[in-house]
Amino acid sequence: MKRLASGAALTAGILAATALAFAPSASAAVTPGSATITASCGLFGGGTATLTATQVSSTSATITLSSTAITTPLALTANSINSTLTMTNSTGANRVFSGTVNPAMPAGGAVTVGPLPGTVAVGDSLDFYKGSLKMVIFGITVTCTSSAAQSPGPFVFS
Fold first, then answer.
1. Does the keyword section mention Signal (predicted)?
2. How far apart are the first and last CA of the chain?
């Protein structure tokens, strides 16, 4: 009887250790996952845009901007826009997300840039308001700004 109890205890221990080994690890999270802004982008027009944030780790994240209201006057090939997205941070220094990631876009087509990688810290509270998106296309800089805070609120990283 003692052997049976010891064997059962050993089996339970092995099963518990196996469950822990295969359990998903806690991952960094950002809330909200997306927010809406109203941007003015000069040549590209302006209007409502969606920002989508993804926290990759406790120190890195990506942000994508997409809008059917902001359009490109010329056809653009994939990865041809050099983008720099600056987000204001209510808990410290502004955060910058940059890269040349965009899909191909026809003339008059909706603008999407990203996912643009950047560095974040736990507790960062990032908002596009008082920040900017600078896009360099064929040597011409187009700057997007917003006159109001993003909705439903800033991106908070954990």
1. yes
2. 50
Contacts for 42-48: CB closer than 8 Å, 24+ residues apart: 42/142, 42/143, 42/144, 43/73, 43/140, 43/142, 44/70, 44/71, 44/72, 44/73, 44/111, 44/135, 44/142, 44/144, 45/69, 45/70, 45/71, 46/70, 46/144
For the record, the structure tokens of 73 come out as 């006057």
d(CA 76, CA 80): 7
- This prediction has a pTM of 0.81
The SS3 of residue 14 is helix
User: Residue 86 contacts by C-beta under 8 Å, 6 or more apart in sequence?
Assistant: 94, 95, 96, 131, 132, 133, 134
Q: How many other C-beta atoms lie within 10 A of the C-beta of residue 18?
A: 10
Task: List the domain boundaries for the chain.
Answer: 30-157
| CB contact at 8 A, 141 and 12 | no
Q: Cα(7)–Cα(11) distance, rounded to whole angstroms?
A: 6
pLDDT tens, residue by residue, 56-75: 999 999 999 999 999 999 99
- What residue has token string 């990688």? 117
pLDDT, tens digit (0-9, with 9 covering 90-100), for 32-46: 999 999 999 988 899
